[in-house]
């Protein structure tokens, strides 16, 4: 496997786009409330 963004772009373009948007601040990330850890 080759390292680097160009390899990821060619291997998984949609995955690269998500990661790139996240790290470039273009992804709308909202905080979520924590869920309880009660076991049923």
Largest sheet entry:
none
Number of helices: 2
Broad structural category: mainly alpha
Mean pLDDT: 89
Radius of gyration: 16 Å
Strand content: under 5%
Low-confidence stretches: none
As a percent range, the share of helical residues equals 40-55%
How far is it from the N-terminal to the C-terminal residue, by CA? 43 Å
Question: What is the ordering of alpha helices and beta strands?
Answer: HH
**Rough shape?**
elongated
- Please give the number of β-strands: 0
Topology readout:
Layout: H1 5-11, H2 13-24
Could you characterize the architecture of this molecule?
By secondary structure, the chain is mainly α. The protein is built from two helices and no strands. The protein has helices at 5-11, 13-24. The longest helix has 12 residues, at 13-24. It is elongated. The N and C termini lie far apart (43 Å). The model has no long low-confidence stretch (mean pLDDT 89).
Characterize this entry briefly.
The chain has 40 residues and is mainly α. The protein has helices at residues 5-11, 13-24.
What descriptive keywords fit this protein?
2 helices, 40 residues, mainly alpha, 48% helix
